[in-house]
Amino acid sequence: MLPPLILIGIGGNLDSARWGPPRAVLTAALAALVAEGVVVSARSGWYRTEPVPPSDQPWFVNAVAAIDTGLEAAALLAAMQRVETRFGRVRTVPNAARAVDLDLLDYRGEQIRSAHLVLPHPRLHQRRFVLEPLVAIAPDWRHPVLGLTARQLLAALEPGQPVIRLPD
């Protein structure tokens, strides 16, 4: 059985004048989390993924990371949002193109429903761009509500949602 994990999703599909293309932006954003009290213990490879829901915006670069931190879930989310803001994230409409998107997917199996935080992430089990990288680092992680492993959740997805592993 896996120890309780803290999992975050990392994604973006816009270049940054300061940090460059999406993969470079996301790598820098992960590094910025260190200053917020976060240690990245594992990170999947990078994946090129179609926007969900489908749109004409650029494809995303995505990954999943397992992290360690002394921050509680709400404080971690606030730290992640500070990093997003520092990297140019402006929240407009849902699913808009963005340079960086950091999602708290699971916090040690906690189930939280508040105005600002829902855990586990309510759509993670429906998204191939989350599940493929998650399976790469923690295939036996269990969804706190559904009880299924990451591998089982991925196998249960309907076809679609193209995800292409990028070279290292």
Describe the structure.
With 168 residues, the chain is an alpha+beta fold. The chain has a single domain, classed as 7,8-Dihydro-6-hydroxymethylpterin-pyrophosphokinase HPPK (Alpha-Beta Plaits, 2-Layer Sandwich), CATH 3.30.70. The protein is built from 4 helices and 8 strands, in the order E-H-E-E-E-H-E-E-E-H-H-E. The chain has helices spanning 22-34, 73-86, 128-137, 150-156, and strands at 6-12, 38-43, 47-49, 60-69, 101-107, 112-113, 118-119, 163-165. Strands 1, 2, 3, 4, 5 and 8 form a 6-stranded antiparallel β-sheet that branches. The two termini are 29 Å apart.
Descriptive tags:
six-stranded antiparallel beta sheet, 8 strands, 4 helices, two-stranded antiparallel sheet, alpha+beta, about 25% helix
Write the SSE topology.
Elements: E1 6-12, H1 22-34, E2 38-43, E3 47-49, E4 60-69, H2 73-86, E5 101-107, E6 112-113, E7 118-119, H3 128-137, H4 150-156, E8 163-165
Antiparallel strand pairs: 1-4, 1-5, 2-4, 3-4, 3-8, 6-7
Give a short synopsis of this structure.
By secondary structure, the chain is an alpha+beta fold. Helix content is 26%, strand content 24%. It has a single domain, classed as 7,8-Dihydro-6-hydroxymethylpterin-pyrophosphokinase HPPK (Alpha-Beta Plaits).
What about the largest sheet?
6 strands, antiparallel
Shape category: globular
CATH superfamily: 7,8-Dihydro-6-hydroxymethylpterin-pyrophosphokinase HPPK
CATH architecture: 2-Layer Sandwich
